[in-house]
From TrEMBL:
Domain called Histidine kinase: residue spans: 41-258
Originating gene: phoR
Cleavable signal peptide: none
The PAC domain, residue ranges: 1-37
Residues of the full protein shown: 329 to 590 of 590
Protein name as it appears in the record: histidine kinase
Places the protein is found: Cell membrane
Amino acid sequence: YDVYGAPVMADSGRLRGVTLVMHDITEQKKLEQVRKDFVANVSHELKTPVTSIKGFAETLLDGAIDDPVLSKQFTEIIWKESDRLQMLIVDLLELSKIENAQFKLDLEDMSLKDITEDVFELVRGKAEEKGMHLHIQEQGSSVIEGDWQRLKQVVLNLVSNAISYTPSGGHVTVALKEQKDAVVLKVQDTGIGIDPKETLRIFERFYRVDRARSRNSGGTGLGLAIVKHLAEAHHAKIEVQSEEGKGTEFSLTFPKKQPSTL
Ligand code: ADP
């Protein structure tokens, strides 16, 4: 508690009592802590690739540049780390845009199946490299009112994760099912799964179940935080079901019409 006290004096000048004002600051403190943790995490995530880029550039300048094998190897690392830095900055900007009070969806009627097909085009290269199989299932119409670009981001993040966290040769399925007033989109994989204890935390910014493995998967740690924000902006419900070693299913239930436009 924040406590302020002030004496209350009688006309005679004698002390009559004390007024105490107490504010419950636990909630405020928690938010402040979340903000501090976020800044610390961002700094750490930015520092790691920058340190590596700087180190390898220095080594090149110190002479490694004359060795064709080393110079190729180091330049590749510099490229990879810059790429990582760029993804991180793009995701951070995206998150800050979404969290802005002025953030608005650009709504239109569109099909989640079309979005999934677009996303599969984007990830096809990565999927083929790993020998992964991509499938779409549709029951009824998958047309909802939503923001095309944002929903594409949602499906892309979920499908990219499904590919990243599934061993070579596995399957990723996007299943779409019409309900009375909603459409359910499921992204299923046959991957490593998530410990049930972790399923709530994975939506936190920079939270990863296995830091080392996730970093190697090329993600920024912000993907699911972005998914959660954008799904909530569309009044969608998110559920996760997972079994370790078997696979994971993210399920998003979208209303067909956004409440604001009913
Ligand atoms: P990242 O960039 O690390 O993938 P995300 O926010 O997209 O960050 O995901 C957070 C964490 O949730 C991941 O690091 C991973 O541990 C876990 N995760 C997400 N999707 C899956 C999945 N389909 N299968 C297993 N684990 C997953």
